[in-house]
Structures are given as structure tokens and as C-alpha cells.
Amino acid sequence: MASIYQYYMWQDSSANAHHSLPDNSAGPTATDSDTIDIHLHFHHLLEIHYPENTSIPLATTHISYPFPRNLFLSQDSRSAAVDALLSTIGASRDFIESVTPDVSSFAFDMVTLPCNSKVKVLTMGLAIFVVTPYDDRQEIDRALSEIMQENPRFEPASKSCIEGLKRVKLVGDSTMMEKCMICLEKEMVGQEVICLPCGHIFHGDCIVRWLETSHLCPLCRFSMNL
């Protein structure tokens, strides 16, 4: 199942306050040496739905990346910077390409806002949450499907072979065959059974259903299609 991405962005004004110049300072304050720090918060969870609902943390990252502020004045350079930043967390290309315009635009607005002109170091928060759903039932179904397609064991017996099997009523000491090894029911004496050419005995209905899926004896793998 595909991973689900969510992301949030904000300007951390509390952090910016520590890097601001006094309001009465004169002249332009934004220089080539001024920076925008992007604080990346990345969380990746594996969400298991079967056999019980539980979440397992796969990765958690908290890193600060400082960039020159003027880097975000050019569309190409800011897009390249955001792309490189998101690539460090192993995000999918589809997610990176879809979110890069939004993140780079938010950063551009921060560095060009007049109210940020006196802030030497801008701080931008970027939180990304990834949830990867996992359901064992889907994996089981997929594995069974592959086995059915690739394993010759699951080639059914021919219709004529199945119809040629003789059904008999099992009599005698119940210890001669404790149980049908397909349904695992112990009582077989007095019931209708089928004895395969290899000598193994099963309930009639049980072995017919089995042979409609596999041409091999479930115990010794004797081939019924020979």
C-alpha cells in the first residue's frame, strides 16, 4: 500500500526574535550573509492493521538546515534547495515534486516580507509526517496468488481422474486410520472415503475438493495425472 504524506509549514517568530535588530536601526538590514534556517521535523510510522492495529516508528529526524537568504530569491535556486533538502529524508519523488513549489513559495514569502527585513536569521519550521499502511492479509493473499501461479503442486487433477475414483465405506478397526489428514476429523470408520492409488485414505468430499486444486496426494505427493 502507498505511503500517506502530510506536511505543515510555519515561521518560528520566537526564534526569529533572538536574531532581530532594534526597530530604530537605520538602513537595509538583509545582506548576502543573512540566512533562513529550515527546521525539518520528519516522522515515519508503519501502521499495521492486521492481526491487530498498532503503529511502529520507523524514523524520526529533527535537523536544522541554514541557507543563504538570497538563495530563495531565485525560483530555480530555491526549488533546487528544497528538492535537495527533501531528498535527505528519503521521500518519494512524487511527494518531493508535488510539495517543492509550496515549500519554496513559503520560504520566498518569508525572505521578502517587509516585517522580516530586520531579522538576521529567519527560522522556518517544516514538519513532514509519513504513514505506511501494512496489512498482513494482503501479503498472504499475494503470496498465495503467486504460489498458485508458479507452483506446479497447484495444478488440479484432471476431471476424468477425479470421476474415476471409487468411493467406499470404511469398515474395520478405527485405529487403521486415525483421521482424515485434510479436514483433521478423527472419525472415518463408517464414513464414505476414497483411497488414492498411493494407498492414502481421505474423506471422499475432502479429497475431491483437494484434487480440484492440486493433482498431488497431500501426504506423499503422488501425482494423480500420470
UniProtKB/TrEMBL annotation:
KW Hydrolase (keyword) present: no
Pfam families for this protein: zf-RING_2
Keyword annotations of the record: Metal-binding, Zinc, Zinc-finger
Entry EC no(s): 2.3.2.27
Residues in RING-type domain copies: 180-221
A GO molecular-function descriptor: zinc ion binding
GO CC terms of this entry: cytoplasm
Reactions accelerated catalytically: S-ubiquitinyl-[E2 ubiquitin-conjugating enzyme]-L-cysteine + [acceptor protein]-L-lysine = [E2 ubiquitin-conjugating enzyme]-L-cysteine + N(6)-ubiquitinyl-[acceptor protein]-L-lysine
Gene3D superfamilies: Zinc/RING finger domain, C3HC4 (zinc finger)
Name of the protein described by the UniProt record: RING-type E3 ubiquitin transferase
